Every structure is written in C-alpha cells, then in structure tokens.
Amino acid sequence: QVQLVESGGGLVQPGGSLRLSCAASGFDFNTYAMAWYRQAPGRERELVASITRTYSTFYPNPMKGRFTISRDNAKNTVYLQMSSLKEDDTAMYYCNAQSLGVQVFEYWGQGTQVTVSS
C-alpha cells in the first residue's frame, strides 16, 4: 500500500533549526513531484515547498531563504530543512506526492508536528 511517513518534528526554540523527513513506499517515487504543506489550527493548509522529479524547487515567499526541500530517490525520501524558525511556523507538517499524466494520483502523509516556542 502507499505510505508517506513523516518524522523529525518536535519542539524547537525560535531561531532554531529542524529537519523533517518523509519516507515513501508503495508507488514509483522517482516519477512523482513531492511537496511539504503545513496547517495550523484555524488556518488553511498552505504550501511550504515543492520539488519536481527533475529537482526543480519552489518556495512561497514566507519560506524562501529559510526552508530547503530536497529528495533522495535512492532512499525514496524527501526532506525539509528548516532554519531561523519562528513561532508562526508552528503547525502540522504534511508530506505530499503528486503524479502528472493522464492519471493523476495524489498521496498524503499523516503529518508531523512542529512547535516553535521559547
């Protein structure tokens, strides 16, 4: 079965760093675009970063310069390196996989909690 399992979340102080991991299985990881989304209570889910199968990346302006997404196809894993964390970054972070083609498939992980607090 398809699985996306996030890990690496936790409590970190403002200004700190954290690296999230998403281990994928059950589908052809190499052919999927991968992304990280986050959702805080009372807020809509928002895109954090994305990376294509050709390693092209995209970051919304609030994340640009602080977050870095990467993927290791040999390990079927996508990462999110976060630095200069702010309290506003506190959210549940979700891993997402999306195929592009005649048949479009999209998968989500269960999420990992990131809490930025002093």
Detail the topology: elements first, then pairings.
Blueprint: E1 3-7, E2 10-12, E3 18-25, E4 33-39, E5 46-51, E6 57-58, E7 67-72, E8 77-82, E9 91-98, E10 106-108, E11 112-116
Parallel strand pairs: 2-11
Antiparallel strand pairs: 1-3, 3-8, 4-5, 4-9, 5-6, 7-8, 9-10, 9-11
Tell me what you see in this structure.
This protein has no helices and eleven strands. The strands form two sheets. Strands 2, 4, 5, 6, 9, 10 and 11 form a seven-stranded mixed beta sheet that branches. By secondary structure, the protein is an all-beta fold. The radius of gyration is 14 Å and the shape is globular. The chain starts with a strand and ends with a strand. It has strands spanning 3-7, 10-12, 18-25, 33-39, 46-51, 57-58, 67-72, 77-82, 91-98, 106-108, 112-116. Strand 9 and strand 10 (106-108) form a beta hairpin.
Name some characteristics of this structure.
mainly beta; 11 strands; 7-stranded mixed beta sheet; 118 residues; 0% helix
Determine Rg (CA atoms, Å).
Answer: 14 Å
> How many distinct beta strands?
11
Unreliable spans: none
User: Cα distance, first to last residue?
Assistant: 39 Å
The chain-level structural class is mainly beta
Net shape: globular
Main sheet specs: 7 strands, mixed
The average pLDDT score comes to 96
SSE order: EEEEEEEEEEE
Question: What count of helical segments does DSSP give?
Answer: 0
Strand coverage percent = over 45%
The percent of residues in helical segments reads under 10%
